[in-house]
Amino acid sequence: MTARAADRARYDRATAHLDAPLAIVDLDAFDANADDLVRRAAGKPVRVASKSVRCRALLERVLSRDGFQGIMSFTLAESLWLARSGFEDVLLAYPCADRSGFAELAADPKLAAAVTVMVDDVAHLDLIDAARDGGREEVRVCLELDTSLRLLGGRVRVGARRSPLHSPAQLAELARAVARRPGFRLVGIMAYEGHVAGVGDAVAGRPLRSRAVRLMQAAARRELAERRAAVVRAVRAVAPDLEFVNGGGTGSVQHTAAEDAVTEIAAGSGLYVPRLFDNYTSFTGRPAALFAQPVVRRPGVGVVTVLGGGYPASGAAGPDRLPVPYLPEGLKYDPQEGPGEVQTPLLGSPADDLLIGDKVWFRHAKAGELCERFDTLHLIEGDAVTATVPTYRGEGLTFL
After folding, report:
1. So what's the pLDDT on residue 311?
2. Distance in angstroms (rounded) separating the CA atoms of residues 7 and 2
3. Do residues 187 and 141 lie in contact, with contact meaning Cβ atoms separated by under 8 Å?
4. How far is residue 327's CA from residue 311's CA, in Å, rounded to a whole number?
5. Degrees (nearest 5) of the Cα angle 84, 93, 159?
6. What pLDDT was estimated at residue 198?
């Protein structure tokens, strides 16, 4: 029996009393992935990206482990909820325009002490000031560095379009604006190198593309390490008490941790290891989060149909954004239909061994987005469900 077949047998036994659709997290795999992130971070604390987890119980679990410290959140409403729930170090990774949220933040000493917000423009400071509604608490802010690699005099750009702050001078200028502004305190710098951390460099069947990605990422790491160090020096000249410099992502943990200028690493997807992380040479994780759909039809030889399953991930549309049939091994989508909203035909010889009501296990393309489809996660240890915990959705919360 292969390792994957053994996992399927465990998952089927553990959930035999549960009807699909359902979602699980294999805690043995989850914990092993957490250990691997800590190992690769080489002594620097890992800040957990909550958008990749979206389950309060699992955030608490990972933050109780040595090597993890703090949360990187994705909306202000989520940040405030997490702070009210007892999480004491929440970095909001994206600027926002949530005026009521800023009013709440500026009025509550506990929230203001726990939450750090992201800015990359003086306009963000203006918006926060206008939203204070009388609140006098000091707002902790972090500056975001644009990590994109710019070539040929800026005519070619590789990387996500995030912050407009690219040079040390630009970040120092905004740092001075924060320092001059009453009611704000600059505490950190963040730089997410998505073109390194979030792009696989070993795509099956694409050797030339994979080599090109590896060459690009090597050049990007060298350029960013030099520029990030210069940025940190420039900002520390304005704010010598800077508390943290955050960088990384699951796919680049060990490379970013090697930079002296970086004090902490961000990661989250590496806990669940969705399918987009199958194509990396830098690490190998264990799939920990899966969902099951029930077989509801047997249309013919070599074909079964499962209920639902059409859960595409965000990003540029393409086959890599679709869930992948995972267990039993050997199933694939019908190219004429793909995964559907209410039914999904699957092709392959394993279909002939599946009966009505059997489970087919899938992996989502991205990590936390799976939790927007399910209100609970069944936590599996060995071949038993040992707990069932709510996702954000299960707690009645949909932040985006």
Report:
1. 96
2. 9
3. yes
4. 17
5. 165
6. 56
Q: What are phi and psi of 112, to 5 degrees?
A: -65, -30
Q: Furthest-apart CA pair in the chain: how many Å?
A: 72
Return the C-alpha torsion angle 273, 275, 276, 277, nearest 10: 40
Contact indicator for 55, 378 with CB cutoff of 8 Å? no
Q: What share of the chain is helix, strand, coil (3-state, %, to 5)?
A: 40, 25, 35
- Crossing angle of helices 122-131/168-180, nearest 10°? 20
In this prediction the pTM is 0.93
For residue 245 the two structure tokens come to 């410099």
Q: Tell me the backbone φ, ψ of residue 113, rounded to 5 degrees.
A: -75, -25
Strands 184-192 and 244-248: parallel
- Check: CB of residue 158 under 8 Å from CB of residue 151: yes
Is there a contact between 306 and 337 (Cβ–Cβ < 8 Å)?
Answer: no
- Determine the straight-line distance between the first and last CA of the chain, rounded to whole angstroms: 42
From CA 161, how far away is CA 194, in angstroms rounded? 10
Place of tokens 């997290």: 25
Q: CA–CA separation, 224 vs 350, rounded Å?
A: 47
Q: H helices of the chain, where?
A: 3-14, 27-41, 56-63, 76-84, 99-107, 109-114, 122-131, 168-180, 194-197, 207-238, 253-257, 269-272
What is the tens place of the pLDDT at every residue in 123-133? 999 999 999 99
Altogether, the residues listed in the chain come to a count of: 400
Instruction: Using the structure block, give the residue that is written with the tokens 């006098």.
Output: 136
DSSP per-residue codes, 143-205: EE----EEEGGGTEEES----S--SHHHHHHHHHHHHHSTTEEEEEEEEE-HHHHSS-S--TT
Distance CA 248, CA 46 (A): 9
The model's pLDDT over 157-207, given as tens digits with 9 standing for 90+, comes to 777 788 899 899 999 999 999 999 999 999 999 998 876 655 666 667 677
Q: Within 10 Å of residue 331's Cβ, how many Cβ atoms?
A: 23
- Torsion-angle region of residue 114: left (phi > 0), alpha (psi -120 to 50) or beta? alpha
Whole-angstrom distance, CA of residue 22 vs CA of residue 37 = 27
